[in-house]
Protein: MaoC family dehydratase
Amino acid sequence: MEIDRSLIGSVGEPFTVEVEKGAIAKFAAAIGDPNPVFHDLEEARAQGYPGIIAPPTFPVSFNPPEEPVWTRDLDRRRILAGEQSFHYERPIVAGDVLTCRTHFIDVQDKEGRSGRMELLLQEVRGRDGDGALVFTHRKTTIYRAAKGRG
Structure:
């Protein structure tokens, strides 16, 4: 067990994301989603949105300026991306200014074909200017055991 479990429950420093329509359009193009609500204001409004909305996986692009203390010293060569999920209270809209924080939720031990691993569970939560929760991006990071320790 290499991930410091005493840090479970820790919360990273807040960081601000200003959601720009150009960033939304570029992200939608990068994932190959031509839905007009991601770049056409009139179409977004016609579908009942207050403005251009972001694709559901857009929060993967929200990164804190500093890495959380609980992952800072991990060996990057042993990290794999795992499962991700997104929950929305409302869509992310161009013009939103979101305050985000990364939360260290848990660590689970697993045994796989290649040996022991730790599953690091984190959430990035984004709130609007009124403090209302807009989204929760839950992610699992796989941390493989060092060679000879699995």
